Amino acid sequence: MASHSQLALSRFSVFSQSVRVEDGTPWSIATHTQTSPTDAFGTIVFQGGAHAHKAQYIRLGYDSDPENVMYLMEKVWGLQPPKLVITVHGGMTNFEVQEKLGRMFRDGLLKAAQTTGAWIITGGLDSGVVKHVAQALDDAGISARMRSKIVTIGIAPWGVIKRKERLIAKDAQIQYDPHAFGSSTGLGVLNDHHSYFLLADNGTSSRYGADLHLRQNFEEFLAKGDDNGLRKVPVVCAVLEGGTSTLKAIHQYLTKYIVLLSWLEAWNKIRELSREPNIPVIVCDGSGRASDLVAFASRYLDVDGVFPVEVKEELLSLISTVFSETPKTPQQILDVIVECARKTDLLTIFRYGEGRTEDVDHAILTAVLKRQNLTLPEQLSLTLSWNRVDVARSCLFAGGRHWPIHALHSAMNDALRLNRCHFVVKLNLSLEEKSRRLK
User: How many domains are contained in the chain?
Assistant: First the structure.
């Protein structure tokens, strides 16, 4: 473990101010910072609650290689690779949602994580949507000791953490009471319901953004897998409320493209677009701001991406009210919302109280199955690894779908290997019965 720890830590650098900024000179990371080995890692011991709770942490560069981050998590922190990653986005300041919707979101998020062995990734700071994730653990009566069994990872910007100098230590246990710090404009404290923290540093102070860069790269790395396409992990984004930063995150998940230009293509002047790994997004309608605007747009947008005139006018009015302090114009924000709403293959709107409402956890897992371009056998294998027979029954075995016999044989073998024969029994499917049904 010690050798793994030293090797892992040697791969991470942090940023510090190196050159004084002259008047009128735009500040930049490349010009005004220098890198050095990380100087902050170890264990945070959260104080101020009924029980002390520990979390592993590291300060690392915003541009850290995701492969090195994964090495740290597996070899040093001892985490098992996830079967699913649920990345939660939403408002950064505190907000209220309808009681029933909030409870459904929290219950569904926790159930999806517990039943599938998922990692939950958040912004890590004790405000906004992160507090709703923390409340999910409290509502379920999960003690501080039991929280270690639910992998919650906070990816937070180093530059906005209050009293971050306390965390500068090497392999030490740091006492940290988030409730004891006074108020500071532009700064925040770490949420004590997380077990792991990646504190992203880009040399700035009191600025957000370093965390989003690291988070996006890490999630894309997990979704893509290695160079051979192995170790891919399904990633799904769940959104509650949110401002313009959340809207930008939704847009990035839904519309991320890369351009591949090979020598032959360049010679023939042909460009080919290849999609990055699909990351579906679940938006909770009724939770406020960005979520409600995307949900509203998705309801009225036609197949050509056009609204009725009165709907467009209403949307522009809502945007100007909700995002009155943003430098972008309402039309610019609407353009982003429209691009999001048109991605019906990846976007799911969870509408509480409208007809038959499925649970949030079911919506999350169903979105993963439908939006990941997986074959039917891969989908069945995934539901088996999650041990979610209800999702398999409703998504994979409804409507008389044709199933290859070899896929069912493979599923039976996987069930035996995982000691989950009940999974097949509950599906009420034997190979013989399925064979007769397909004839």
Answer: 1
Q: Are 190 and 44 in contact (CB under 8 A)?
A: yes
Residue 262: its pLDDT value, please?
43
Q: In this predicted model, which residue has the larger pLDDT, 375 or 177? A: 177
Beta strands in 286-364 (DSSP E): 347-351
Q: State the amino acid at position 159 in one-letter form.
A: G
Question: What average pLDDT does this structure show over 376-394?
Answer: 82
Using alpha carbons, select from 155, 152, 157 the residue that is nearest to residue 136: 152
Query: Of 90, 92, 118, which is closest to residue 105 (Cα–Cα)?
Result: 90
- 235 within a domain of the structure (yes/no): no
Residue 416 inside a domain? The answer is yes
What is d(CA 438, CA 114) in angstroms, rounded to the nearest whole number?
35
Helix (H) / strand (E) element for 409: namely helix 405-417
**Phi–psi pair at 284, nearest 5 degrees:** -90, 105
The answer, yes or no, to whether residue 142 has pLDDT greater than 70, is: no
Q: What is the pLDDT of residue 3?
A: 60
Find the mean pLDDT for residues 10-30.
73
4 in helix, strand or coil? helix
Q: Are 144 and 137 in contact (CB under 8 A)?
A: no
- Torsion-angle region of residue 392: left (phi > 0), alpha (psi -120 to 50) or beta? alpha
Say if pTM beats, i.e. exceeds, 0.85: yes
Going through 91-185 in order, the beta strands assigned E by DSSP cover 119-122, 151-157, 170-176
Using the 8-state DSSP alphabet, how is residue 345 labeled? Answer: T
Own/partner pairs, 77-82, CB within 8 angstroms, 24+ separation = 77/196, 79/151, 79/196, 80/117, 81/231, 81/233, 82/117, 82/118, 82/119, 82/151, 82/222, 82/233
Buried b (16+ CB within 10 A) or exposed e, 9-36: bebbbbbeeeeeeeeeeeeeeeebbebe
Cα separation, 248 vs 308, in Å, equals: 25
What residues make up the domain containing 418?
375-438
Residue 419 maps to a domain: yes
Phi, psi of 59 (to 5 degrees): -90, 130
Q: CA-CA distance, 406 to 240, in Å (whole number)?
A: 41
HSE, side-chain direction, 13 A CA sphere, residue 171: 8
Reported confidence tier of residue 19, pLDDT bands at 50, 70, 90: low
Burial of 149 (0-12, 13-18, 19+ CB in 10 A): exposed
Q: What is the mean pLDDT of the chain?
A: 84
Residue pair 90/128 in contact by the 8 Å Cβ criterion = yes
In a domain, 428, yes or no: yes
The residue with tokens 């009420």 is: 428
